[in-house]
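Reviewers of the previous submission asked for a worked example of the structure-prediction workflow described in the proposal, so we include one complete record here. The input consisted solely of the amino acid sequence. No template or homolog information was supplied to the procedure at any stage.
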Amino acid sequence: MATDIKMPKLGMTMTEGTITSWEKKEGDKIEKGETLLWVTTDKVNVEVEAPETGVLLCIKVSSGEKASVGQVIGIIGAEGEEVCSADENCQPDKKEQYDNKLADLREKVRATPAARAMASKQCINIGEIKGTGISGRIMKEDVERYIAEAPCEYADEKAGWTDISLSAAESISAERMTESFSNVPHFYLVMKADTSRMNRMLQTAREKMIKNGSPKATFTDVLIWIMSRVIPKHPRVNAQWLNNGKVRLFNDVNMGIAAATPNGLFVPVIKKTGNKTFEQIVKERAGLVERARNGRLRPDDMAEGTITVSNLGMYGIDMFNGIINAPQSALLAVGSINDGVITMSLSLDHRVIDGAAGAAFLKELKETMEKPEKLLDEYLF
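From that input alone, the workflow returned the following structure tokens.
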């Protein structure tokens, strides 16, 4: 008996998700618990397992398309089993009507609605496309592959521009950044700091940690370690605005790390960094960034952040102003190190923290970065 594959609820606030990719195509055999597809929700790419053992009979929602929680996105069943692809609510008493309709469809090109829509939009004769779905059914992915491989016959060479589609993660990021910048009253504080001692600490740590097989420590790791010990003295930078007019102050520092990936910007979170050693921070940061770049972040990897750090120094950027990762109240943006000096820009939510309080935090952070010896850690000294 066929089993519906439904869009799972992968978070308390999730109402819909985007199919990132199907790991199987129609007609493929699959075992229960095997990875069936990946779903993007809230910028997190989540693995979805097969609910039953059988054959993937039908894909109802193609890669790149959205589906509501609980919506049927595919069907698993026995090999050769007929499924009502035209009407997922098909009842036994409608079987004859459905069989007649199916017979008519078989005389025509078999294709999913999404594939037909894309082919029509691109002025492509869908009959020219080879389908990879069950019984040669043309999928949306087949149309995308055809477009990528075929010459661009319908391009207007005089136009001089190209429209591209954003990935699901990029779309969500665009929406969130627009909302944050529109609704949060940003202001910025800029300060320089001498990083000579921090760099010596980093070199010492790298030499010690390599012997233990730990990941390569970065400047961002040292910065997170120092920030996490300064922040508790300035609770307003580790807070969020509540729409009821109150401000929530957090006891723990959960550090978000802005990570650029081929699929867009992600902000994985290291939890309770103030309680972790430098080595623990290095290992967690390396693991999170690797999962982000491979599109394998879990929902919990991006949850509960209280403040964010963004480093573009490796790209040669001297200084920039970041957009706050709402509902957080602060983001520290750092650029490249020039002659031992780094420029920091602190973005703040003016509803939560004023200029004087923000300046006090940035001043102590600078002083601690320049004389970090009092923050002892066996790997740094």
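Residues 190 and 345 are 4 Å apart (CA to CA). We consider this example representative of the routine output the project will generate in years two and three.
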